[in-house]
Amino acid sequence: xxxxxxxxxxxxxxxxxxxxxxxxxxxxxxxxxxxxxxxxxxxxxxxxxxxxxxxxxxxxxxxxxxxxxxxxxxxxxxxxxxxxxxxxxxxxxxxxxxxxxxxxxxxxxxxxxxxxxxxxxxxxxxxxxxxxxxxxxxxxxxxxxxxxxxxxxxxxxxxxxxxxxxxxxxxxxxxxxxxxxxxxxxxxxxxxxxxx
Length: 196
Known about the structure:
This protein has about 200 residues and is α/β, with parallel strands linked by helices. The chain is about 35% helix and about 15% strand.
């Protein structure tokens, strides 16, 4: 089974901690995603987060390629609580050390009201298992968020989830996981584009 994990492109409003805020893709974000896949169509189906910045492209891509699309609610981004909608600059102005504390130990220093990393990782991995069970042996495109992709790659590599923020996940990037029943997942490539 091959699974291509694709992060959404840039949303309207640029870079900020969106979490579960449902901003759509900007024109630039649409172009980033189109460029990332170009004319490639190796997939048998698409699974997507329900949030518009993922779902709109997933549905358009599926329609163009005549593929099934499945909406997976548990592939929503982590809820960032009090950080939702804020930029790094805004958060640093409030407390210059809070981002450093969070990235150093996201379990002990999560934002106020944020989803716990354990709860987030658990729901993503349950959704992963549901998807794998339903689509054995298929090549899928998963359109999701940086946090979701970090959890899945951390699982594939056997990394502790509290270290997942060390993984760079660029807008519209694609990472491929190969998975065979009874074997550990293998990361074949990371943070790339099919259109290159």
